[in-house]
Amino acid sequence: MKPLEGLRILDLTRVLSGPFATALLADLGAQVIKIEPPRGDDYRHIGPFRDGESALFALTNRGKSSIVIDLRAEAGQELARQLAGQCDVVVENFRPGVAARLGLDPAELRKDNPGLVYCAISGFGQDSPASRLPAYDLVVQAMSGWMDATGEEAGGPLKVGEALGDIAAGLYAVIAILAALVGKEKTGRGASLDVAMLDSLVAMLPTSHAVHLYANRPVERVGNRHPLSTPFGTYRTRDGLAIIAALSGRQFTALCQLIGAPDTAEDPRFLTDEKRTQNEPALRAVIEGWTTRHPTEKVVAALAEAQVPSAPIMTLAQQLASHHAHARALVRQLPHHSLGESPVVGQPIRFEGAAPLAETGAPALGGETRKILQEAGLSAAQISRLIAAGVVKEASR
User: Fold this and answer.
1) Domain end: 287, 313, 339, which one?
2) DSSP per residue over 176-225, as a string?
3) CA proximity to 104, closest of 123, 125, 88, 83
4) CATH number of residue 335's parent domain
5) 241 plus 300 within the same structural domain
6) Residues 275-327: pLDDT tens digits?
7) 0.90 cut: is pTM over it?
8) Active-site annotation holder among 70, 88, 166, 273
9) Catalytic site residue 166?
10) CA separation (Å) from 377 to 62, 105, 370?
């Protein structure tokens, strides 16, 4: 099922936030035309590599067509405007102000395409006091509250182990684009969308919001346990660690019965979730009195039998080799112009039981330059002149 089939997107993004968003849209059936500079997207040059092909680029640019246009040239800018005039959506993640200098801002592009949905992704938004500053994921993690809330109880702040700022901005960009397209169906008007990485991360801190905005307390680092609920974290086992996440009263009572401490559920210190959190060290001692006598596998199995949410801590390799990953087809292979096949992890949402996925892997640099220009109405002679002038470039054969 390809719900976005027929939608045409001009992708002016590079690295991660924008390409992640447009890859999800490609999975859903959109035609994504990716404009790259002569050197290509920066991610083409970042490892790890397989047979000279960047893994990061392959994972985040599946299903797209690549055209190389030198946007420093006026003819290149005019060509990009011509392509935008034939698209439903434009996505860019330039630093604010760059699109306007290139004549590719929403006001300019809507002169010929008034229904255009234009999505700009940046570090701090289009009109922030910091909008002109460069931003990477680590920068916005540091500024958002995520790093301050992450880490061991007595330790310093830690970054999340993934480029969460880019991924969050990419996801919010997809939400914004799809909502704008629904709005366009109703009104006939396009929209200008402003997605900031920093705003996106701040929006994804509901627990910290509750502590700061409602409880009027500072957000504190608590390691692997939940700051508001107990027992909800990692617990030592005989051979490692297990996750125990008993949120409801029923689950807590079941846990107490399982570990041979039924009276603990009636202990005044543990009668409510709030009291359990206030007395977390005492409750941890009771729970680990049982968990440390058994291996992780047995602890998790017994908790599952008692309907108490639990899990081992798995590596990505272990998860992708699991029955769940195979049953849900989390990793799939796509045909690739150089590698033959490339593994990708597509969007996880299922439509009528199936998860849509792009039909091709990431493109060669300029692999569809000539085809895209022909579809845009340029003659073979015009294309040859643009190639000779260095305004556009084809993939080397």
Assistant:
1) 313
2) HHHHHHHHHHHHS--EEEEEEHHHHHHHT-HHHHIIIIIS-------TTS
3) 83
4) 3.40.50.10540
5) yes
6) 999 999 999 999 999 999 999 999 999 999 999 999 999 999 999 999 999 99
7) yes
8) 166
9) yes
10) 25, 23, 11
